[in-house]
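Side project, low priority. Logging it here so it doesn't get lost.
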Amino acid sequence: MSPPDDESADIAQIVSGEPTRRDEQIQALQESLAEERDARREERFIFITVTVLLLDVVFFSVLDGIGGPIALVIVELLILIPLAKRLGMEEIAALLDRLLGRVAGNIKDPD
């Protein structure tokens, strides 16, 4: 029992390794999907960051002194850094990590 001609043509195409038009379309769709996912992750992170900044405005107006706002900023950075890494925002995570180190350094040595 021999395979039909269309199956042997498909097998020959697979063995040859040359991409077909369908393969190119699939690749283009996969790249488009990856870009869409990255854009949505960026939008989520921006939304969360803007929300945190708006809440900071409220909390900073209520808190007296400098200790409370600094502690709040440190806690926020401890939350935002892993969130940025999880959402694929490595550059932002590195920037926030440096900012956290600078804030922590200023608390230890105010000079």
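Brief comment: The radius of gyration is 26 Å.
Revisit when time allows.
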